[in-house]
Write a structure and sequence with these properties.
The chain is α/β, with parallel strands linked by helices. The chain has helices at 20-27, 64-75, 98-105, 122-128, 144-155, 166-169, 196-199, 203-221, 233-246, 262-273; strands spanning 2-7, 32-37, 50-51, 61-62, 85-95, 109-114, 131-134, 188-189, 192-193. The chain folds into two domains: 2-155, 3-Layer(aba) Sandwich (Alpha/beta knot); 188-273, Trp Operon Repressor, Chain A (Orthogonal Bundle). The protein contains ten helices and nine strands.
Length: 281
């Protein structure tokens, strides 16, 4: 894969991409990443890339001419690789998810365009057919960090980027669920022991425990994910057990006030709401 990034701050990316999985993937030839200075495509001698917004208002807007010139110039490189997917990082964009990351990882080429200031001239998206993506419902000073997030998420899915492919197959969101808790040495830290099942050597029991913990965490913290979760027969069986548990007050956990913790109430409430829902396979 080749990833091109068009930015007014090319120096931001160097150190980030010289570390970790992205660095190893570059060294192994799994991905090629090129950073382009947007100012090199500015039409004036002052290398201006932004201007005041039409209609008034605060802030500046990134100009259409340098952005389109940069995108078209980058897309014309190495035509044998096919036309790349152009992505503008913008708070107005579609929310990035593991599904979208997988989709982006299927392209041979990506061109990432971080937004800045109040945003980019709308004609950039109209002219180039770019896809707008957001990494979350919060405000950043610019899209460069968002572009780094996209690169990291995409690269780790590329064949050869991670030595053990199973590691990302079991990560949070890979099946639409949050991940289970993880533990390592020592087995006891200040009286907090590693769950006995993880020390048992019973791989079937460990697998089931991890699945149950993933379901519990998702129901308690991100119940919205359950509608799109990919569940197998064992997951459904575990859910049925959790539903039965939710109806037993004698076994429910209690907080300091004697009431069940909020996370437990949310989880069991979601279980009751979804008892008769048909789960996606």
């Amino acid at each position: 894969m080749r990833i091109d990034i068009i930015t007014i701050f090319p120096q931001m990316f160097g150190e980030v991409f010289r570390s970790g999985i992205v660095s190893r993937a570059r060294d192994a030839g799994v991905v090629r990443i090129e950073i382009h200075d947007l100012r090199a495509f500015a039409p004036d001698r002052h290398r201006t890339t932004d201007d005041t917004p039409y209609g008034g208002g605060p802030g500046m807007v990134m100009r259409v001419e340098p952005l389109v010139a940069a995108i078209e110039g980058t897309c014309s490189l190495e035509r044998a690789g096919g036309r790349p997917q152009v992505v503008v990082l913008s708070p107005r964009g579609e929310l990035l998810s593991e599904r979208l990351v997988s989709e982006l990882a299927s392209f041979e080429r990506l061109v990432l365009v971080p937004g800045r200031y109040e945003g980019i001239d709308e004609r950039v998206v109209e002219e180039t057919g770019a896809r707008e993506l957001s990494i979350g419902d919060y405000v950043l000073s610019g899209g460069e960090i968002a572009a780094m997030v996209v690169v990291d998420a995409v690269v780790r899915l590329l064949p050869g980027a991670i030595s053990d492919p199973q590691s990302h197959e079991e990560d949070s969101f890979s099946r639409g669920l949050l991940d289970c808790p993880h533990y390592t040495r020592p087995p006891d830290f200040r009286g907090r022991r590693v769950p006995e099942v993880l020390l048992s050597g019973n791989h079937g029991a460990i697998r089931r425990w991890r699945k149950e913990q993933a379901l519990r965490a998702t129901l308690a913290r991100r119940p919205d994910l359950m509608a799109e979760a990919v569940l197998d027969d064992e997951d459904r069986e575990i859910l049925a057990d959790l539903m039965q548990l939710s109806g037993s007050s004698a076994r429910r956990p209690e907080g300091s006030s004697g009431e069940p913790p909020e996370s437990y109430r949310r989880a069991t409430g979601e279980l009751e709401d979804w008892k008769n829902r048909r789960w996606r396979t």
